[in-house]
Amino acid sequence: MTKALDPKNKKPKSRSRTATESSILAAAEDVFARFGYHGTAINAIADKVGLSKQNMLYYFPSKEVLYQRVLENVLNQWLEKMALLEQEGDNPKTMMTNYIRGKIDISRVHPNGSKVFANEIISGAPRLRDYLKTNLIPQLEADVQLIKQWISEGRMDPIDPYHLFFLIWSSTQTYADFSTQIELVLDKPKLEEQDYDKASEFLIHLILKGTGIH
Amino acid sequence: MTKALDPKNKKPKSRSRTATESSILAAAEDVFARFGYHGTAINAIADKVGLSKQNMLYYFPSKEVLYQRVLENVLNQWLEKMALLEQEGDNPKTMMTNYIRGKIDISRVHPNGSKVFANEIISGAPRLRDYLKTNLIPQLEADVQLIKQWISEGRMDPIDPYHLFFLIWSSTQTYADFSTQIELVLDKPKLEEQDYDKASEFLIHLILKGTGIH
DNA sequence: CAAAGGCTTAACCTTTTGGTCGAATTCCAA
DNA sequence: TTGGAATTCGACCAAAAGGTTAAGCCTTTG
Predict the structure, then answer these.
(1) Residues B22-45, buried b or exposed e (16+ Cβ, 10 A)?
(2) B106-130: per-residue pLDDT in tens?
(3) What is the distance in angstroms between the Cα of A26 and the nearest Cα belonging to chain B?
(4) B155 and which of A140, A189, B136, B150 could share a cystine (Cβ 3.0–4.6 Å)?
(5) Percent of chain B, pLDDT > 90?
(6) Residue B159 φ/ψ, nearest 5 degrees
(7) Is A35 close to B123, i.e. CB distance below 8 A?
């Protein structure tokens, strides 16, 4: 794979290096998503990028390190968009709508990331317990506070905020993690944009109504 | 769920043999759930049962066969209880309530089965596409018809039945598949019965209200 | 233009693991 | 008791996969 000449390259080595690393990470995310950590042969990733195994190991010294980097990328991308608090809007309805729509968007745009994450959690989250504790949970707690505030202000029904988030997380991520099953049920080779839109509308409607947000 | 013996069985299996096979299957379900197909070493299963690897292979000739049997067991157990149509009750509210509660029960009693299934779907369901097509989907279609009927009778809101099932499946199975994450959030070493009860009540309330079932 | 340093490859090594084979042992009914 | 079937075990094997090493190639830069 020859890289395009870049006239304004000031540090070509570092530039091409990051490019190579990115393509490796992308391929790795894909393969790890489908086969899980153990099911993935680093050779399969190398083939996909068009590198030899040894050469790929030059960029990432081990399978474990590569996997960690993939996981890291996924999590960072996620956490950014995953706060209810940070949604646009000044009222429960708008914010919740944006939140749900955002989560479905992630399932649509980054299904592989979601699958890697799912694999990790199912197998007991050995590698990211700490990450979850220090990053996800604090953010969630803030979101929970917001929900409680809305409840106390009578802007929604008094429901358990934690289980509400479990519901939203699972029902949105299922369009990534379980896409195979959904495609089978809907009899489509691949989910299309309209399917995700439909899912969004459905979930938004049901959850808003179900929680009494108006 | 007829336990009819295979016609091609010349002799019924001995009591001790079936007992051994059962304990192997149980251990296998456990290990496959945690590590996935590729991540599981048959030695780990054998150790757990207290057999040598070779001896275990005497009962199940290969890892693949053993895995298939585990999957088979899980699916059969599931399908039995998974029809909305077969729930007790003569009205939408009761039937839907029992359905959701039943699904949460499965997550509580058979979390490993759920995880094995989840692993399989995430990795593209290579081994059970056919099973889903011939077993799950027909049952689902019948359930979808029932929902449509309820809608046409004005007993619930006009919503998309398919996405409703996706929501119920995902939000109930998450208490098995993602239990690690949930335990972390709820700050408990292990989910207790009351947690599942709470989840049931939450989901039942939200889904009934959200779909306009009364 | 030539040294330095980044990049790539061939050959090789080690460990793990699914699986085989035949001998030994146990179980069971005649 | 005994012969045959069922079960268990020790020894071994081949393939796959992660990883190492040392040597060569290519690009940049002083």
Answers:
(1) eebbbbbbbbbbbbbbbbbebebb
(2) 999 999 999 999 999 999 998 999 9
(3) 17
(4) B150
(5) 87
(6) -120, 170
(7) yes
